[in-house]
Amino acid sequence: MSIEVIMELRRKGGCFLTGEDVEVEVTFKNTHQELPKSIAWSCVQLFCEASSLNDKESVKRQRLKTSFTKAKNAIFASDPTLLFCDIIINPGEVKKFEAKHLIPLLDVPPSFKGHYKKYFWYISCAAQQPESPLKMSQLPIKVLNIGVDVEEPPIEVEETPKELLDCPDFKLELPRLSIVEIAMAKIQEICSSRKRRLYEIGNSGTIFAKITMLKNTFKLGDDVIGRLDFPRDGINCLQTLIIAETVETNLLDDSKPENFCSHCKEHSITAFMEQTYFKLALPMTAVPCFTTEFVKVRWRIHFQFVITRDKLMNPFKNGQSLLADNLNIETVKWNLPINVLTCSPFNASLVCSNSDSTTFVI
């Protein structure tokens, strides 16, 4: 075993959108100082594997077109790319091969580590020397779902002058936009739309807080900004807790409770405030909204208000007042659904912890 195999992603960070190509470079190096080594074959393939808490849960499997996968619940497998058959590598020689696999645009989930369901994407590379056991390694990647309909816009081309068409060296090449450029342009257009929205929060018919927001569609990495107004008309709001969280719903079993995951929060003391603002940063390490046949993941802003109908100040001597003790308080909860789309995979790669390469020996 003196052949070192290095599988490396062309894109640093290993984050991709659905509909993109995953390009890898596989390097074979003979580390033996004297003897040449032969390799019978090598193959590269893209997988998406699903796992859940319930081992008896049925998973629709795609018929795999190769026999070297270790995935027990592979819900997607690309066509295998055969890199070579029967090659000889001399001592110290290095040979490089490339492979490219397309992530489907539709009908596949993003990378997700939830409570009821987990989806893992990875590139698998297998190689074998003659009369030796099969060796393989897996390189995890992160896949983000686009979440919007993407369609390449029509390209308007001006009429080409006749003198250019008659020129034999003239070639008309139309620019093609990548799936990332098309998707991010559409997402940016959706997230840029602003419309003032006012939500009134009340208790027993009395409004104690008003929430103002300019939009309810965001992308990962955006700031959720809003304003809180407190009328202080019979009810005082003592403090607020605002949380951006994802809600995972098990679509196969309605009896299972929803699972909540908090991503960022902001706590404020508002006892004597008439107006304040909040800002929540949606992390690029999270997942956009998506739905599969097993789970549904959505985003919401969770509000908690601690209120009281008692007076906050009691009169004291000489016209002074003291803060009241033993207030009767009540906690009011309210949820605001929001739509969260993906960010650019290049931005997500900056905070992704996945490795760009993996090495094994055959």
Report what the structure shows.
By secondary structure, the chain is mainly beta. It folds into two domains: 3-145 and 346-361, Immunoglobulin-like, CATH 2.60.40; 190-314 and 325-341, Immunoglobulin-like, CATH 2.60.40.640. The protein is built from three helices and 23 strands. It has helices spanning 162-165, 179-192, 345-349, and strands at residues 3-9, 15-17, 21-30, 37-52, 74-77, 81-89, 94-102, 112-113, 117-128, 135-144, 197-203, 206-213, 217-219, 223-229, 236-250, 259-269, 275-281, 290-291, 295-308, 313-315, 321-323, 329-341, 357-361. Strands 2, 4, 5, 6, 8, 9 and 10 form a seven-stranded mixed beta sheet that branches. Strands 13, 15, 16, 18, 19 and 22 form a six-stranded mixed beta sheet that branches. A hairpin with a 6-residue loop joins β9 and β10. The longest helix has 14 residues, at 179-192. The chain is elongated, with a radius of gyration of 29 Å. Pfam families: Rgp1. InterPro entries: Rgp1.
